[in-house]
What we know:
Order of helices and strands: EHHEEEEEHEEEEHEEEEEEHHEEH
Oligomer: single chain
Strand content: 25-35%
CATH superfamily of the largest domain: Pseudouridine synthase
Helix content: 10-25%
Distance between the termini: 54 Å
CATH topology of the largest domain: Pseudouridine synthase
Number of helices: 7
Amino acid sequence: MDEATTTRREMVADSAAANQRLDRWLATVLGDLSRSRVKALIEGGHVTRDGAATRDPSEAVRPGARYALTVPPPTPARPEAQAMDLSVLYEDQHLLVLDKPAGLVVHPAPGNLDGTLVNALLAHAEGDLPVIGGEVRPGIVHRLDKDTSGVMVVAKSDRAHQALSEAFASRDLERAYLALVWGVPGEASFRIEAPIGRHPVDRKRMAVVPRGKPAATKVKLLRAYGTALALVECRLETGRTHQIRVHLAHAGHPLVGDPVYLRRVPAGARTLEPELLAEVTGFPRQALHAAILGFTHPVTGAALRFETPPPPDLAALLTRLWPEGHWAIPTNPV
């Protein structure tokens, strides 16, 4: 099938398709798209059943239902280099450490095809990047959500990419986050262990689900503002998508400003004075900052550790809550 332009395919499921996985059945019927490609299209909202979008590749096919698959035009194989100002904390021939601002997407994806960190890195380190998967591109070994700020490391050599990927996979490094949450935890420090997977209904969200991947987060209470708000430190034992956001919401302490996992402002918010309540509820993004990243240099073996303060918007909100400034970047493991 020619994917140079958007194409649409429609088919009606017959009785032989009953109870087959949707992605497997579509791949078989179409014949010219791989199952992994079909699965990605389903998860991306490009498949409908009787006119309604379905995002679960594993759902059972319904005989008699009319399915439609839309294949969008392909994205460029290689992102374009785009010059941007980057806050570089450290750089050598093997790696680069930066302070990512909130609002910056890490990797191009549908809806964010340019203006990403990858685009900026291609311009910043052109000619000095590893070949990964047959393409010259930055070695992204971990990610921060678009609206999460803080420290990131990027590989600039094959050796660094492999070693850093292994370090993140084995959690052989230090990562600490500052998070402003609703409500005050009942314990000074605690551990959230709950499996994370795709939300059973809203496939764009993650959730604590019985058959999810194992996930654990250590949480330490740093400051409390009455009973309404708390500043906590989070340290990851695993690295699941949206892990801190999902775990804190699951524990009853959703992040201030979280557009996905803050479903309603907790009752404790009523204890805040109206002006302060308006400031907190008006915070435009999840109040989460990757404050610390520590790891062993993949080539020299040197111990590297980087700390960054919260960006101006979050720092201003924290100062509004605690004017004396006694909120600090975490320094000791939970």
